[in-house]
Specification:
By secondary structure, the chain is an alpha+beta fold. It has two helices and ten strands. Helices cover 23% and strands 37% of the residues.
């Protein structure tokens, strides 16, 4: 009797494991059948032709989008597919201000680089390559305006003691 119960338990465990394998295979078949939608690369989901996603600073890939900061450095972070090679170049006008070569993206699928900014206009260009994009270099860019130090000091020392000290568009009238 004891031997029969053991065999029954083993058989039940085998059936449960086999059904989970079938369920996993079915899910993968569904994902593969709709390849235009999403590519799953570990824990990060990418669109079919997406290899790099900048998550910080939050940017919109639009021609007129501009980030403004008082900081001399900004932390650029994001997700990328495993094996992606990334380079970040900061331009001040047409001249290269700084260049960063990052390590190849690994299993965490993240990248992170503290980027130095020159005062005023900076164009940050992230260039990447991946083995699935043969003979092609892709890029993302954004403009970052670093406020001059004197503007930072003006705001730091600005004192508001009455509503009349505020700019007109900030005064509320009842």
């Amino acid at each position: 009797m004891k031997n029969s119960i053991s065999k029954l338990m083993i058989l039940g465990a085998f059936i449960i494991c086999a059904s989970e394998v079938i369920a996993t295979d079915n899910i993968q078949k569904i994902l593969d059948s709709n390849q235009n939608q999403v590519s799953i690369d570990s824990s990060v989901e990418f669109q079919k032709n997406e290899y790099v996603r900048i998550t910080q600073p939050i940017i919109q890939i639009e021609e007129d989008f501009l980030i403004t900061t008082f900081e001399s450095e900004i932390n650029m972070m994001g997700h990328a597919r495993v094996g992606t090679k990334i380079s970040i170049t900061v331009y001040n006008g047409n001249e290269v201000y700084k260049t960063y070569e990052l390590e190849e993206v690994g299993a965490t699928q993240t990248f992170n680089q503290l980027v130095s900014l020159n005062e005023k206009d900076n164009t940050v260009v992230l260039t990447y390559t991946h083995k699935d994009i043969p003979n092609s270099t892709q890029e993302l860019s954004t403009k970052i305006y670093r406020q001059p130090e004197e503007n930072k000091l003006k705001i730091k020392n600005y004192v508001v003691s009455t509503p009349q000290d505020l700019p007109e568009n900030l005064i509320e009238t009842p």
